[in-house]
User: What shape does this take?
Amino acid sequence: MIRVREGDDEAFKELITRFHGRIHNFLKHMVGNEQTAEDLTQETFLRVHRARGRYRARCRFASWLFTIANNLALNRIRDNPSANLQPLPVTESGSLPMSHSTPRASVQEPVGKGMERAEVVAAVRAALDALNENQRAAIVLSKFEEMSYEEIGKILDLGPQAVKSLVNRARVRLKSHLLGVLDQIQSRPIEDMDEDLNE
Amino acid sequence: MNKSPENDTVNPSDPDQDFSFSDPGFSELVTSYLDGEVSGADAEIARRSIKESPEIRLVAQDIQRAWDLLDFLPVTVSPEAKTLETLALVLQESGSGPVVLDDSVNGELSTNLPPQIPERSISSKFRVGSRVKNPWWKVALIAVVFGGILGFLALGVLRFFEASQTEKIKQVIGVVENIQFLRDANDIDFLKAIAVPELFGQPDSVAVP
Assistant: This one.
């Protein structure tokens, strides 16, 4: 980012290459709309390029980038709520009808008793959409970006305790919305938790 | 295990404290534990509670399983073409260097040709073409704004001259209205002027009784 600040276009290309997909996915999870996410991704990088002179090295670049993306997503949702959070189309396989979209869960993995993968995807999407914007951002940043509470706090401009409460409320609410799905799909062992408990 | 009513918060030093997910503090502790955000005594409390209490273990498992379900959401792998489109758009907007992107979006980027980005690749918000296609409204807007400013200034100058003319007319009207008094005043001055004794040599003849 230091090189970008000094006008190095090759460095900016590297930066976009590295973060484009991550920002796009974050925004897609936030606004629930593929085209809006693409527009906002482009706008995010435009904002970064315009503001590159104001970037300070003490700030982690990813935090700065996701802060811009999150603010753009919030503005879009607040300005035009009806245009966002439209259910993403899912095929029977559960993936988007785009060649470059793939579910994180294994395609071969059995979903469960009489529940199609597409139904699970739709239910998870609906549960995520049911969260408020901050809760959704916290969940997405934690789950998909594997960010710590501290990093999430910087992006959402919240203190450590506020982030802890936010994530807790979000996870409990997510669980409540997905109880029906959890009852239907196969019980998946929680390896990490079991390993911890057996220590 | 007992929890006194006045002690609703998680206390690591109390091994007999009873926990429940209805306690926000404990719920936050467990989710933080599942996220790997706690350590030491707090982590030990969460670990022991999940292990020893079937109810807590069940809720914690559901929270974790719901978390795992997020893996079903499709994740977009951004193709290089999209990345290059964004780069071309940014460089075009900044004017920092000519960029060409082939319409087939094959990922090849050159920096020695004029900017050409497929219009379909650009968000409508950033389409420069749409601004170029309709320049007349900008000209009209500028003309209206400048016309308005010039008209305003002209009106101000006109009013200034009108005001000065009105002042002059008022002065003339004042003289006409008071002409009688002015004439009388002149007569008095005239009488005073001729009432000096030197003109007649006999002060008593002109003295006022």
The first strand of chain A starts at residue 101 and ends at 103. Chain A touches chain B through 68 residues (CB under 8 Å). Residues 26 and 109 of chain A are 25 Å apart (CA to CA). Chain A has a mean pLDDT of 79.
